């Protein structure tokens, strides 16, 4: 059963806190100085996930780490060199964060295996995750803020649905927190475009969502199939479709619709298989996390 704390922090708090934060950064110079859109998203997700989980301390349950990974991503937005500086510096910063994150998230799965095997897993995850972040940043920088935020919101929502279908309930709820916060940002960015700066939220989404996918794949007894990870990762590149020469001349709403349609199409194999898996599992004992 979902209790009142989970409803508060999982449903109501994310959009409300995101909206309050965006209004504050728009009208209060002090807030604007310390909170970019990306830092705000990281703060809202992290606080709401920890509130949802009952305010656990770091270092306990592996499923609490996405909040702290989001906080680490939020720190990037405070450093202009980390967020948009020289490529090599940006790569090193992202390698550091994804390296630590991969080790924390895969620790449970790698318990009992050899050090060399663990190193291969962590290094592979670190490199692939870093490439994903850089590619998402490039793809979203090439499109409009409106397309970027709606694709991120759509992807977070679809990821939540996929995690739910594969019976990883907590991770689906965490993705739902990110969806609600991004949804509030999408609405406010439509009303006041200047309030939303897309670069930061892309970094946070590219850290939080893969962390949930890794947990939903490797840290539960039965979860996302490993083949689903490339589909989910590629969905974050959907904004690139708006850079195709004929599409660039389309009206804004058509480009936005196309980018979101591509996002849905890329995630649809995962969702379809999730529905099939759920139907098969409906007659079996409950499983998952």
Blueprint (SSEs and pairs):
Layout: H1 4-27, H2 29-34, H3 37-52, H4 65-76, H5 80-84, H6 87-110, H7 115-141, H8 145-165, H9 169-191, H10 199-218, H11 228-235, H12 245-248, H13 252-281
Helix pairs in contact: 1-3, 1-9, 3-4, 3-9, 3-10, 4-6, 4-10, 6-7, 6-10, 7-10, 8-9, 8-10, 8-13, 9-10, 11-13
Describe the structure.
There is one protein chain. The protein has 289 residues and is an all-alpha fold. It has one domain (4-281). The protein has 13 helices and no strands. The chain is globular and about 50 Å long. The model has no long low-confidence stretch (mean pLDDT 90).
Indicate the multimeric state: single chain
Mean pLDDT: 90
Number of strands: 0
Distance between the termini: 14 Å
Largest sheet: none
What is shown here, in short?
This protein is mainly alpha-helical and 289 residues long. The chain has helices at 4-27, 29-34, 37-52, 65-76, 80-84, 87-110, 115-141, 145-165, 169-191, 199-218, 228-235, 245-248, 252-281.
Keywords:
mainly alpha, 13 helices, globular
